[in-house]
Amino acid sequence: MQYGICNLGIVPIRLEPSDTSEMVTQALYGDAFKVLEQRKKWSRIRFTFDKYEGWIDNKQYLEIQESDYDELLNSELKLSKDLIEFVSNPSNNQLYPIPIGSNLRGLALLGHEFDGTAITGKKDKSEIIKTSFLFLNSPYLWGGKTPFGIDCSGFTQMVYKLNGHKLLRDASQQATQGEALSFIEESEPGDLAFFDNAEGNIIHVGIIMEDNYIIHAHGKVRIDRLDHSGIYNVDKNTHTHKLRVIKKII
Which residues form the catalytic set? Predict the structure, then answer.
């Protein structure tokens, strides 16, 4: 088994080993993973954090030893807090821009330094909504995980991750976590609402706010109304998503 770490700010992870293939998620700076298969230009990887798999360009990550991987795995998660920051390489005086939620556990391994604000540990549930506002108006991007482009489940995963809680990558996967609630009235700010399509497949997720509002990524990270039918788009004056289930994760 081989191991790797993302040594760049934001790297696309593809469905197939090709630059033109669909981006299914992103690797952020410091993300560690197992290398399941390696080809001349591409590697199929499995992320440590959420076990998600995809293909990464071999030029966009650094191979590491199993001992280094184990050390990263057993160290406390430490994330960058500001929307955009940078790490520096003192050996060549170069800067590497990194987005919010970048993993700083591997700084020493990568030979980088960081002077910004970092966060560790689990935060109270009341912090979930505050964190979600950091992504408000971020454009929607399939597979995205940053304020410069993010999808619905990438948004919920990153908000929870920044507060020390683990969510899986896709909406359908996140819907398997936590405790189901019977009614919207039972929910609290920070709970997750999931939505399905005509076939009954869960395709969307958002974070419940106070007073029957929801923040979610749809065109951009936006705030809409939530009722028993689903999401009511305040700009279009119509329902855009059909409610399936509400989950209490924490």
Answer: 152, 204, 216
